[in-house]
Backbone:
């Protein structure tokens, strides 16, 4: 956890060693209060004076306080004169380090902060410590291992399952399988505790327990998902404890308190009514006085310990004098006894045979000996045996093996013979004991596992521990060892002391409705009944106290936006809204109304939490990060991996469909946090794993060129920024996102002119703006800002160095410089042409988007239209691939692809079309094909004139220095002339070149000379050369091609949504760069959206799989 420190300059010693001042460097030192000084040196549990600066929730010191991390450039010493600096540090003996004082603390200050560090955070400490939020004293943590960790873990682990279900599990699964169930569950928690101990001792763990450890080890996505699962598990645990409380109340304490009577549905309704009332009552208690709940925790723990001692005492007593709990069997079937009655069909009283209660049950309430009775009753004898034969009996051998059954099966003594009846009524009879659910091994694992949860009770109190790094491992492992011994020994003792049919009797109907485990206790069954009642009440209160705080911690972290409302509460920090949500979710568990159905649900959530604790430890160990230095040394990644595997196996053993649902919930939360959650950097293991995986993958990626089948556009996007470092053409990023079907690398780069020292802040702001826009446009990629004295050099550096290893771009995407003619800086088009040359030299493809501001945003949709591809020269097939990728995006999905190619005089256009269709068929690309015939025509006067004007303008700009206004006026002049020239007829090239005077000029030499004389008279001699020059024949032919091709494209594709064209290469002679820009301008004139494509020679589209 990062901690900021106050800068403490050291006073020069006057007469001895003095303590450093606690004030800032610009304040006069004040002597420390003696009492505060004594408090700071005390090592006990006394309150310490709070001298720490105000901290934000994240733990960092707020700006304005000392040690706020102000950059060194803003230090008062940087800008002060030497005289002022000398006055400030007059008498100081650390003047050599005076420049560092504002940002780096002295060692004495650092050690003082570490010594006084407390991990108790506001809103997480107990209620009684929050009574005065403005207090200046914080109660120092003073809990040791026994009180702070061991006893809370003991109380949370030993609970309702031990008292209400463990005897039934032993009777159903047998001693051997029950031992296996308990052993694997305890082994899972022990391995988890070892992993948790390693994580908890790897630095200071603030209050927050398991959620803090998982989130800071595995990242916000896993932390939030598992934290919410742990919260749900804790909440459903509260529901389970409340259902256990009601079961004890209505079954064993006051059966007459039931509101509904009769069927099984009535029992469930009783659970729902009483459960709702108890949830409401407990929520009110937690809301009003949580401090009383904490003070009663020891009382509840005493009840648990007293009950367990009563069990062991009862076992010892059975060796000498077993308790008298007779059970009645008809044949091998167990009979229910709600009160004492003779276990016989009839008895002799005064030499008179009298029928018993059993006779009346099975003989239609007819007391006569000749009455018609149940056939099974007539054929089998009634037997009475002791339900608690004692530890010296050989009942253990009978209870070794399992006795699973379907729902509604009569509980029978397996080693006792009986006479079966063939045609017996299937209806359940009240005098037999039936199983209420179908039983099998995996189901019992799910019911039992909640009895071993609660191992994180100590880590949840880490803020109250004197030495958490020592107490948490010792106390937790000791508590698990103790409870594991209790559970395993109880299994053997129950199997050795209690008859099997009594063990399988879940609700004690065979022993007069007593709690089965209570019949074994000494001195009275009521010790167990009362002790378990208060134990389950206390556990329910603890769950309703802890779960809202866990939810509040998750909400305050801000990783789940819709949960932020639950981060607020009362003025003292109590989580009011979180308590309401917890009570509501707990009520859902209450409405299920069955302890056996709720237990597997919370087993899933706890197992998932333990799984990720083991994963976090294994991951951190395998990554070997420098910060992974746990003080607890008795761990190994194999133990963590074994614990993770065991937890995963237990999830599917308990209930495979519950496991899938829990994973689905965690997965949805993970993806939601990843998609909408706040960005958090916690130095977690998943980030470290990603770095290791990225490093491994980069090392495996070949530095050579990828195979043809693996080629995909890895795009470097060159953005232009305005003076505010905002993106000029945001639609370029939209277009990049629309190409993401290629699943390639995206690097968004820009260049700021200047030096890095001067432009550092602007570069940071530009990167932040670009990242924000990338997030808005959902562009996944990387951002890179270059600060260079020359924009041209900066772009060159990006093209050369962007990317890493084998993950480098192979395509450059940029916008057409729209104002290249009118710009004040002629380097605009120079930079563009140089970029074209450099991408060609680097053998990279180049995409130039013309009229980029007309391109669609990601929210727009084209319901119809065409994407036209003008395939003039073959440069690898990128022209084919790009429209295919665009059509995968919803913006372009409904557009049709049309491919045009140009046929010359000696080409067979029909054969060309057929070949092209076959080529597209093999490429698996659906498109319309058209071959456009373009014959050799005479060059028009317009083309000749346009070429001449282009060359004259280029020459004039070299010979005279025109102001901005004059350049614009000159450009308008040329535009007017070009517009007036469209009607000129066709002439032969030779005639045109031989007689240039036939071309009508709309401006004169005298006019230009006069314009020039207004600015600078030294340039006059050059104009005779301008007006006597003849256009270059090569330029005329290039202009002719541009004009002719532009006319053909306009004729076919003027209304197309997008036109893709081969981009001609720049001239080898750099003196013709401006002419090259003019050729491209003419080529694309009149088209709305144009994408000029220039292949690099490496991209190939293949027909092979």
Residues:
């Amino acid at each position: 956890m990062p901690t900021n420190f106050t800068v403490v300059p050291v006073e020069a010693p006057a007469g001895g060693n003095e303590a450093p001042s606690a004030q800032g460097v610009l304040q006069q030192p004040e002597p420390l209060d003696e009492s505060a000084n004594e408090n700071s040196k005390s090592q006990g549990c006394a309150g310490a004076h709070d001298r720490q600066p105000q901290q934000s929730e994240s733990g960092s010191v707020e700006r304005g306080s000392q040690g706020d991390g102000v950059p060194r450039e803003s230090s008062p010493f940087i800008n002060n004169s030497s005289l002022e600096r000398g006055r400030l540090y007059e008498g100081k003996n650390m003047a050599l380090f005076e420049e560092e004082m504002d940002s780096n603390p002295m060692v004495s200050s650092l050690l003082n902060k570490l010594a006084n560090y407390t991990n108790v955070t506001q809103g997480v400490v107990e209620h009684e410590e929050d009574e005065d939020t403005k207090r200046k004293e914080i109660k120092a943590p003073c809990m040791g291992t026994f009180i702070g960790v061991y006893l809370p873990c003991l109380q949370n682990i030993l609970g309702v399952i031990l008292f209400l279900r463990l005897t039934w599990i032993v009777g159903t699964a047998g001693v051997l399988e029950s031992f296996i169930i308990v052993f694997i569950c305890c082994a899972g928690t022990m391995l988890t505790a070892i992993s948790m101990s390693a994580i908890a001792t790897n630095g200071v763990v603030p209050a927050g327990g398991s959620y803090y450890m998982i989130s800071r080890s595995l990242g916000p996505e896993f932390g939030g998902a598992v934290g919410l699962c742990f919260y749900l598990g804790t909440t459903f645990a509260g529901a389970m404890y409340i259902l256990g409380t009601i079961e004890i109340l209505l079954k064993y304490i006051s059966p007459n308190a039931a509101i509904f009577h009769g069927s099984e549905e009535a029992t469930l309704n009783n659970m729902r009514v009483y459960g709702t009332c108890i949830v409401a009552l407990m929520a009110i208690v937690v809301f009003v006085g949580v401090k009383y709940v904490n003070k009663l925790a020891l009382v509840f723990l005493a009840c648990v310990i007293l009950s367990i001692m009563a069990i062991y005492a009862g076992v010892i007593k059975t060796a000498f004098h077993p308790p008298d709990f007779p059970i009645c069997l008809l044949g091998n079937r167990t009979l229910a006894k709600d009160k004492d009655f003779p276990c016989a069909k009839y008895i002799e009283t005064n030499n008179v045979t009298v029928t018993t209660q059993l006779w009346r049950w099975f003989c239609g309430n007819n007391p006569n000996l000749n009455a018609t009775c149940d056939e099974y009753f007539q054929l089998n004898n009634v037997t009475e045996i002791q339900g608690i034969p004692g530890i010296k009996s050989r009942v253990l051998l009978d209870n070794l093996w399992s006795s699973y059954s379907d729902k509604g099966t009569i509980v029978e003594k397996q080693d006792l013979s009986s006479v079966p009846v063939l045609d017996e009524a299937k209806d359940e009879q009240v005098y037999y004991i039936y199983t209420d659910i179908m039983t099998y091994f995996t189901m019992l694992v799910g019911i039992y596992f909640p009895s071993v949860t609660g191992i994180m009770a100590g880590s949840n109190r880490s803020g109250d521990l004197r030495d958490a790094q020592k107490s948490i491992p010792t106390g937790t492992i000791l508590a698990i060892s103790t409870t594991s011994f209790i559970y395993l020994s109880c299994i053997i003792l129950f199997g050795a002391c209690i008859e099997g049919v009594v063990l399988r009797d879940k609700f004690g109907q065979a022993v007069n409705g007593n709690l089965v485990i209570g019949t074994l206790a000494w001195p009275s069954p009521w010790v167990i009944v009362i002790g378990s009642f208060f134990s389950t009440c206390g556990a329910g209160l603890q769950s309703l106290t802890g779960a809202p705080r866990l939810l509040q911690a998750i909400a305050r972290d801000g990783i789940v936006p819709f949960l932020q409302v639950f981060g607020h509460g009362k003025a003292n920090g109590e989580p009011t809204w979180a308590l309401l949500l917890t009570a509501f979710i707990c009520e859902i568990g209450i409405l299920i109304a069955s302890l056996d159905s709720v237990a597997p649900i919370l087993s899933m959530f706890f197992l998932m939490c333990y799984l990720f604790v083991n994963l976090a430890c294994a991951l951190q160990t395998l990554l070997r990060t420098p910060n992974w230095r746990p003080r607890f040394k008795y761990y190994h990644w194999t133990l963590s991996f074994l614990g993770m595997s065991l937890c995963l196996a237990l999830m599917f053993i308990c209930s495979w469909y519950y496991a899938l649902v829990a994973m689905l919930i965690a997965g949805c939360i993970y993806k939601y946090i990843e998609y909408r959650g706040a960005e958090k950097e916690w130095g977690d293991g998943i980030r470290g794993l990603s770095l290791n995986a990225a490093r491994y993958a980069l090392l495996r990626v070949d530095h050579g060129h990828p195979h043809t089948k693996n080629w995909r556009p890895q795009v470097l996007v060159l953005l232009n920024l305005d003076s505010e470092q905002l993106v000029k053409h945001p639609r370029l990023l939209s277009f990049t996102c629309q190409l993401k079907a290629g699943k390639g690398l995206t690097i968004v780069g820009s260049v700021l002119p200047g030096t890095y020292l001067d432009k550092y802040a602007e570069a940071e702001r530009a990167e932040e703006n670009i990242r924000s826009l990338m997030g808005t446009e959902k562009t996944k990629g990387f951002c890179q800002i270059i600060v260079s004295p020359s924009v041209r050099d900066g772009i060159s550096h990006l093209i050369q160095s962007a990317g890493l290893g084998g993950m480098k771009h192979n395509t450059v995407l940029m916008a057409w410089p729209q104002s290249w003619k009118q710009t004040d800086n002629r380097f605009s088009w120079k930079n563009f042409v140089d970029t074209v040359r450099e991408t060609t030299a680097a053998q990279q493809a180049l995409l130039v988007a013309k009229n980029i501001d007309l391109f669609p945003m990601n929210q727009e949709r084209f319901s119809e239209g065409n994407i036209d591809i003008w395939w003039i020269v073959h440069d690898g097939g990128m022209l084919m691939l790009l429209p295919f990728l665009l059509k995968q995006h919803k913006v372009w999905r409904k557009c049709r692809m049309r491919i045009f190619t140009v046929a010359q005089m000696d080409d067979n256009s029909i054969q060309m079309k057929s070949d092209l269709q076959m080529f597209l068929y093999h490429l698996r690309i659906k498109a319309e094909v058209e071959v456009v015939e373009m014959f050799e025509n005479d060059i028009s006067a317009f083309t000749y004139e346009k070429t001449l004007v282009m060359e004259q303008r280029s020459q004039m700009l070299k010979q005279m220095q025109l102001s901005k206004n004059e350049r614009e006026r000159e450009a308008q002049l040329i535009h007017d002339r070009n517009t007036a020239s469209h009607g000129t007829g066709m002439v032969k090239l030779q005639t045109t070149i031989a007689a240039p005077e036939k071309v009508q000029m709309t401006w004169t030499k005298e006019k230009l000379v006069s314009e020039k004389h207004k600015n600078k008279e030294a340039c006059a001699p050059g104009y005779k050369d301008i007006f006597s020059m003849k256009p270059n024949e090569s330029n005329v032919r290039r202009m002719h091609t541009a004009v002719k091709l532009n006319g053909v494209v306009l004729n076919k594709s003027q209304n197309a949504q997008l036109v893709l064209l081969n981009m001609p290469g720049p001239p080898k002679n750099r003196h013709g760069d401006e002419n090259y820009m003019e050729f491209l301008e003419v080529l694309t004139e009149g088209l709305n959206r144009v994408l000029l494509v220039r292949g690099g020679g490496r991209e190939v589209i293949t027909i092979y799989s």
In short: The chain has five domains: 142-321+438-654, 326-420+427-435, 666-704, 707-849, 861-981+1032-1100. Residues 326-420+427-435 form one domain.
